[in-house]
Amino acid sequence: MRAVCERCGNALTPDGDARICSFECTFCVACADSIDHVCPNCGGELVARPRRVTS
């Protein structure tokens, strides 16, 4: 999972909110909202990024 938004460059924490497509293009929530949840790289749907379990 990427640590920064691909559009604005803001840092994304592993347990924070982010949006990804099926190719794992990664965007912050604000950027995903501004592009209507459509990935500008592949045209896929941007959905909530799953959270990783920390051990």
* Rounded Rg: 10 Å
Number of E-state strands: 3
Alpha-carbon distance between the two ends: 17 Å
Low-confidence stretches: none
CATH class: Alpha Beta
Mean pLDDT: 93
Structural class: little secondary structure
Strand-residue proportion: 5-15%
Sheet having the most strands = 3 strands, antiparallel
Which sequence of strands runs across the widest sheet?
2-1-3
- By DSSP (H or I, 4+ residues per run), the number of helices equals 1
* Range of helix content: 10-25%
Reported by name, the CATH topology is Herpes Virus-1
What is the total domain count? 1
Q: Identify the CATH architecture.
A: 2-Layer Sandwich
Morphology call: globular
What's the SSE pattern? EEHE
Write a brief structural summary:
This protein has 55 residues and is largely without helices or strands. The protein is 11% helix and 11% strand.
